[in-house]
Amino acid sequence: MVPSAAPLPPSAGSARLAEARERFLTTESVAPGLVRGPILASWWRSRDWHVAADRVELSYIRDPNLDTPLTRNAVPVLRNLHEHLDGQPISIILTDAAGVVLSRMTADPDLERKLDAVNLAPGFSYSEEQVGTNGIGTALEGGQPAHVFGHEHYAEDLEVFGCAGVPIHDPLSGKTIGAVDLTCWRKDADALLVALAKTTADQITSALINDSTAREFRLMQEYLRACRHTSGIVLGLSADVVMMNDAARQMLDPGDQLAVLGHATEALASQRPSAVGGGRARPRGRPRQADRAHRRPARCRSEPEEADVPARPGRLGPAVAAGLHPGGGRLQHR
User: Residue 151 pLDDT more than 90?
Assistant: First the structure.
């Protein structure tokens, strides 16, 4: 079902809106009703960040990492949309949580050249702090869908565009992990662009949920298998959850438990081969008496690979458990 369209500004290309923007940039005074509230708030943030209003000058940040749960699940959705748009002048853009463009699909050569001219391309950040009010950065900053059309853009070079951005949230942790944005020429922008961006974001979220469920299942399988084959300490670790068996709680005092978890977190972050971790997992229902799940903040984005785990590397991620035997004093991978 296509979501209801968001209301559009009075006229994104109108002379009155352009005049309001110019007045804001010169006198800080804008008559009520000329500029939508979210746009005016974004203009103020852009001013506070000292964003240039007369140009877009960006530095290349980094090569995009296309081997993440976000990209693996979003790119097929975006490719399907790209095919269905059938050459229409709409650019489909995926970014990370910092607004760095990961992927861009554009069928129209003229639109693509203009996007290149303003560095709306992979490896460049379109956060508000970098380019001011825009569909990507304003959606990420506000944590909700945003559409920015024509003269609502803070930077003059972006006024020819209409764009609609929607944040994408991790289905397990709830944190913002990126955004999807649809950008077209200002004259072509309408409510359907906003509705299509929301629908696309929903499809990406559904794909992430399905992928997370598969990774949860793999990790839980490996954790339970390790519990059956050792009487020592067993941990099941992901970026979001730590599962600890009864032996771990009995043999390790709270300080030692923190030390073990610290080692495991460090291993996940550094992607060392001896890492104790894997895909996200969350025990469903009430945990068994021998097991306990400890929720902790999702700080690690990496998913280390383990050669002895029957998972598809780079796809579902590993499902790993580790044993720590009494008196051993160090983690031993099992």
Answer: yes
Phi, psi (rounded to 5 degrees) for 189:
-75, 135
- Report d(CA 286, CA 33) in Å as an integer: 53
Phi-psi region of 14 (alpha: psi -120 to 50; beta: other; left: phi over 0): beta
Structure letter (DSSP) for residue 183: E
Structure-token pair, residue 43? 């203009």
Question: How many CB atoms are closer than 10 A to CB 21?
Answer: 24
Task: State yes or no: pLDDT of 263 exceeds 50.
Answer: yes
Average pLDDT over residues 208-214: 81
- Please state, as a whole number, how many other Cβ atoms lie within 10 Å of the Cβ of residue 65: 13
Name 236's Cβ contacts closer than 8 Å, sequence gap at least 6: 219, 220, 222, 223, 226, 242, 243, 244, 278, 281, 320, 321
Q: Which residues have a Cβ under 8 Å from the Cβ of 246 and sit 6 or more positions away?
A: 289, 290, 291
Read off the pLDDT of residues 59-96 as tens digits, 9 standing for 90 and up: 999 999 999 999 999 999 999 999 999 889 999 999 99
For residue 259, the tally of other CB atoms under 10 A from its CB is 12
pLDDT surpassing 50 at residue 307: no
The Cβ of residue 327 has, within 10 Å, a number of other Cβ atoms equal to: 6
End-to-end CA distance of the chain: 48
Sign of CA dihedral 166, 152, 49, 125: positive
What's the average model confidence in pLDDT over 268-294? 41
Opening angle at CA 230, ends 228 and 231, nearest 5:
110
